[in-house]
């Protein structure tokens, strides 16, 4: 019997199948995270979003985004941005102590929620973020790949998932690449899967807030009529607590 070959024209199906698995396997955890975030909104807390390297794409997705939460504070350090130095950004993520530095500047409270985006989940920066937040009594949501963590070198002695309150698993395979299927070398899926998880969370959060009579602080697009006016009140409320709002 001939073996079926997945070609480039089938790649969309590979991605859609992956996202379907992500949605199905995270259903319960997404409900738990939505409850955590809703409790934080009710308590006038912040969602702190952190990552390193290409996981900073997920942090950008959470912040100042049309339809996104206004109570999000991005947590990062310039050394972690690949555009500021690709090799040095990898070194920074592997350096112990940087997490304590960025969290000290940001502050943590028990009514906040810290999201740590890290597909491998094994380097000191994401792991220490989770550990420091947990010690401060702040819930931690790890957005990671359990499979990738299992095979990656444990540079921090433990993993992000092992130090989280709730784990959202993006199911990314070790190495991130997905194509060709038999021997993948290209087409990383982590950004797609992680962004999908975030938006699945936003949908659940919106529905739970509506059921509870809670008004979510949601940004409007600045490029639609009335967007600037709608956002002005949110800027007044959060600008002093989220310096990145400028």
Q: Residue ranges: pLDDT <50 for 5 or more in a row?
A: none
Helix content: 40-55%
Mean pLDDT across all amino acids:
94
Provide the gyration radius in Å.
Answer: 18 Å
Helical stretch count? 9
| SSE string, helices as H and strands as E | HHEHEHHEHEHEHH
> What coarse outline follows from CA principal-axis ratios?
globular
The largest sheet is: 5 strands, parallel
Q: Strand tally, please?
A: 5
Q: Give the strand order, joined by hyphens, for the main sheet.
A: 2-1-3-4-5
Structural class from helices and strands? alpha/beta
Question: N- to C-terminal separation?
Answer: 62 Å
Percentage of residues in DSSP E strands: 5-15%
Explain what this protein looks like in three dimensions.
- This protein has nine helices and five strands.
- With 246 residues, the chain is of the alpha/beta class.
- The chain has a five-stranded parallel sheet, with helices on both faces.
- 37% of the residues are buried.
Short description:
Helix content is 44%, strand content 9%. By secondary structure, it is an alpha/beta fold.
């Amino acid at each position: 019997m001939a073996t079926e070959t997945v070609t480039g024209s089938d790649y969309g199906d590979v991605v859609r199948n992956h996202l379907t698995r992500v949605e199905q396997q995270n259903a319960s955890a997404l409900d738990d995270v939505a409850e955590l975030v809703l409790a934080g909104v009710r308590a006038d807390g912040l969602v702190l979003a952190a990552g390193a390297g290409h996981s900073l794409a997920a942090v950008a997705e959470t912040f100042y985004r049309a339809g996104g939460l206004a109570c999000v504070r991005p947590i990062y350090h310039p050394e972690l941005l690949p555009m500021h130095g690709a090799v040095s950004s990898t070194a920074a993520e592997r350096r112990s102590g940087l997490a304590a530095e960025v969290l000290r500047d940001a502050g943590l409270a028990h009514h906040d929620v810290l999201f740590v985006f890290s597909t491998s989940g094994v380097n000191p920066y994401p792991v220490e973020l989770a550990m420091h937040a947990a010690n401060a009594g702040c819930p931690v949501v790890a957005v990671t790949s359990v499979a990738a963590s299992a095979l990656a070198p444990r540079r921090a002695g433990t993993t992000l998932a092992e130090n989280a309150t709730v784990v959202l698993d993006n199911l990314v395979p070790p190495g991130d690449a997905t194509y060709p299927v038999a021997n993948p070398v290209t087409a990383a899926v982590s950004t797609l899967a992680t962004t999908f998880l975030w938006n699945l969370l936003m949908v659940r959060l919106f529905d739970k807030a509506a059921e509870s009579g809670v008004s979510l602080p949601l940004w409007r697009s600045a490029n639609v009529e009335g967007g600037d006016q709608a956002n002005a009140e949110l800027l007044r409320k959060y600008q002093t607590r989220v310096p990145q709002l400028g």
